[in-house]
Specification:
alpha/beta; 3 helices; 3 strands; 32% helix; globular
Amino acid sequence: MAIADTADFAAAVAQSHDIKLLADPAGDALPKVEAAGDVLALIGPEGGFTDAEQAAAREAGCVAWRLAPHVLRIETAAVAAAAILRSR
């Protein structure tokens, strides 16, 4: 598992991955990732992704993913995402 620094959004969603997840409080529960070799999980800035970023992510194949039943701070969301994905 690698946790990257902040990145240009367009460049991040353009990368090739087996599964691309976009952290979104309105998203669905985590899809099955057991068979995936390479997962990209995007955690947004405070205040969330813009509508344009969400649209670009969906167009690039990202699936909206709800980490918890409530909004998490960025620091907590990143750790929670890593723990959830690591447990699969």
